Amino acid sequence: MSDTPLYESPSSLKTLWQDYRVFADRLEFGTLLGSWTIPFSEVDQIEVHEAMLQALVNGRLDLKHFPFGLKLDMADITEHVALDRNTGLAKRVFFSPEDPTAFVHAAKTALAAWRRDSGPSDHDPQPAPFG
User: Fold this and answer.
1) How far apart (Å, rounded) are the C-alpha atoms in residues 93 and 129?
2) For residue 23, what is the enclosing H or E element?
3) Could you say which residues of the chain have pLDDT below 50?
4) For the whole model, what pTM was predicted?
5) In this structure, are strands 80-85 and 34-39 parallel, antiparallel, or unpaired?
6) How many CB atoms sit inside 10 A of residue 95's CB?
7) pLDDT of 40-73, one tens digit each?
8) Which residues contact 32 (CB under 8 A, 6 or more apart)?
């Protein structure tokens, strides 16, 4: 694993003094309870969401898709990042880096490169053709 972050969001009051980092193969959250690493193999989707209060006031909060999940900081009252995972207890994680758009851009760029470079190898079984 690479030790140099591609993007780092510093801790602040908005993040409840937690910091968030993008690496070439993972995301890391420096939380109040310790460091949490999410490898890109567990990431399904990452996107920017508006504050829930703003969505409610503007009539865009869809209760059918209410954002249940683990909230690491002030994600309900500020623009934040929604991370969907394919494993683990916390399938959805919400957090508020200083610049959510820049964080998501860096994460999507790194994730795309990781997926391109970590594609199927010669050792992976190939799906059988239909016929």
Assistant:
1) 37
2) none
3) 64-65, 122-131
4) 0.79
5) unpaired
6) 24
7) 999 999 999 887 776 667 666 655 445 567 888 7
8) 16, 17, 18
